[in-house]
């Protein structure tokens, strides 16, 4: 008799707990954010370390390696009189610069290799976004993850510079796809109550990945082993085959109800919520959606076919252009101030972590639009102040530039979050892919803008500051999406968001 009561209590604990019913059939079936969603997000977060490593590895792959002339009575290693040169390998034993002698007239090839990386990310985001909307989130996600692993290892064995550029392009292509598809997978399985928290914290692994590059490079001073070290971690992607299902929201939107219901019931059991009513609720919800308008798979052209969606697409693309240009451009601008390359990179990258955490609080209590306006304003103030302080003390210039970078570090996760909420499910990956592609265009021109500082010191901060102001202004044209239901169809996207 003494054992009867504990057994009864144990049974009560295992009884499913009903979830709050909302206008979103997916959230109503599995809950807003429960134990399954938590571990699912932690699992997807792993792929973001690799995106930070591969996007910014160039800092150390092509690290500055001093070149000197060993010819008697000749000091300029690039002069015609110099017949013998020598690299200073006291800091880095090998880099792509020393491997293929990317010096003097060939020095621009080093920067070109990084521009090729940004082009790869640009097109990868776009192409995998289209594959994701057309063929499903899971195949697109798995495809880009394994492509990143394989091509990353190929880079280690590059026999020539142009082969290195090609393989780095393929790595970047896969990395761009990973950025887009992983974020969409997370956005489509959680509800509005925790959406801003998860979507913003999703950027933390990228920040940590960026910062940890300095640690890798400090202990590994040869570029091939450095590349291997930041790639081999991706072997954990094998677990995604078994643990990452297709997005039930995408299956629902595209009419594959049986598959969607099967996955939702699995998630519901893991979350200890009732499963008996899921099929009836999902089928009823789909009848309502399909009766309003036939559900179809979207394309990138559809982003510009509807008036309000077209406006949102253009404004969101502008915001991405601004944040990528200002973030990467200002980070490079700061790095040119000299000093210890390991420490400089570590500090600059670590700055994104408190910015990301602050973004959680701001978007939760101020909303997406006001946060975007404030953070672009912070960047604009810091960078435009530099226009008048280019001859001031270097510490003052560093503070102003750091303020601009800090504002951009808050803007970046908000751009991901807001973009994921603005676009409807049928073209969400396409929309984010397009915005990411435009943003990478900003990353491409950022180094060129930094080079303009050699002409006039005030030109670079002026351009970055003006673009920050444009990001602030276009925010007025976008709807506030805090606590709203994710739009599923084009018709939903044309309506003003309703509170969930």
TrEMBL record:
Residues 57-482 form the Major facilitator superfamily (MFS) profile domain. It comes from the Eukaryota. PROSITE patterns: MFS (PS50850). It is a multi-pass membrane protein. InterPro entries: MFS_dom (IPR020846), MFS_sugar_transport-like (IPR005828), MFS_trans_sf (IPR036259). CDD domains: MFS_SLC22. Keywords: Membrane, Transmembrane, Transmembrane helix. GO terms for molecular function: transmembrane transporter activity. One of its GO terms (cellular component) is membrane. The chain crosses the membrane at residues 112-131, 140-163, 169-190, 197-219, 225-243, 314-335, 341-363, 370-390, 396-417, 429-449, 455-478. It is found in: Membrane. This is Organic cation transporter protein isoform X1. The gene is LOC111594327.
């Amino acid at each position: 008799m003494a054992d009867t009561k504990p057994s009864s209590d144990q049974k009560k604990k295992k009884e499913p707990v009903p979830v709050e019913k909302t206008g979103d059939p997916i959230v109503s079936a599995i809950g807003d954010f429960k134990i399954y969603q938590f571990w699912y997000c932690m699992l997807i977060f792993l792929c973001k370390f690799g995106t930070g490593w591969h996007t910014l590895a160039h800092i150390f792959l092509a690290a500055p390696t001093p070149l000197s002339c060993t010819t008697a009575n000749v000091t300029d290693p690039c002069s015609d009189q110099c017949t013998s040169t020598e690299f200073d390998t006291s800091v880095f034993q090998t880099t792509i610069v020393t491997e293929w002698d990317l010096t003097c007239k060939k020095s621009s090839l080093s920067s070109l290799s990084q521009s090729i990386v940004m082009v790869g990310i640009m097109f990868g985001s776009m192409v995998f976004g289209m594959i994701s909307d057309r063929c499903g989130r899971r195949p697109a996600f798995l495809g880009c993850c394994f492509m990143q692993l394989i091509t990353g290892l190929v880079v280690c064995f590059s026999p020539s510079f142009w082969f290195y550029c090609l393989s780095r392009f393929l790595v970047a292509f896969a990395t761009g796809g990973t950025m887009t598809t992983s974020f969409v997978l997370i956005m489509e399985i959680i509800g509005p109550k925790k959406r801003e928290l998860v979507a913003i914290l999703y950027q933390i692994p990228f920040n940590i990945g960026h910062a940890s590059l300095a640690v890798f490079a400090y202990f590994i001073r040869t570029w091939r082993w450095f590349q291997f070290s930041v790639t081999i971690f991706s072997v954990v992607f094998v677990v995604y085959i078994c643990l990452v299902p297709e997005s039930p929201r995408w299956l629902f939107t595209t009419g594959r109800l049986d598959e969607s219901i099967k996955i939702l019931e699995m998630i519901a059991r893991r979350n200890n919520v009732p499963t008996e009513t899921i099929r009836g609720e999902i089928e009823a919800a789909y009848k309502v959606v399909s009766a309003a308008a036939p559900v179809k798979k979207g394309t990138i052209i559809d982003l510009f076919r509807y008036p309000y969606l077209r406006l949102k697409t253009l404004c969101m693309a502008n915001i991405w252009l601004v944040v990528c240009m200002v973030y990467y451009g200002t980070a490079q601008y700061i790095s040119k101030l000299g000093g210890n390359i390991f420490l400089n990179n570590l500090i600059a990258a670590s700055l994104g972590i408190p910015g990301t955490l602050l973004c959680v609080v701001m978007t939760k209590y101020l909303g997406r639009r006001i946060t975007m306006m404030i953070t672009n304003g912070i960047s604009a103030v810091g960078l435009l102040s530099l226009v008048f302080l280019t001859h001031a003390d270097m510490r003052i210039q560093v503070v102003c530039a750091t303020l601009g970078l800090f504002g951009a570090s808050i803007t970046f996760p908000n751009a991901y979050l807001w973009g994921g909420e603005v676009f409807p499910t049928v073209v969400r990956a396409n929309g984010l892919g397009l915005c990411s592609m435009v943003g990478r265009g900003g990353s491409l021109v950022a180094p060129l803008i930094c080079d303009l500082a050699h002409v006039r010191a005030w030109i670079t901060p002026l351009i970055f500051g003006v673009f920050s102001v444009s990001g602030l202004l276009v925010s007025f044209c976008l709807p506030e999406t805090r606590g709203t239901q994710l739009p599923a169809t084009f018709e939903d996207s044309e309506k003003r968001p309703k509170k969930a």
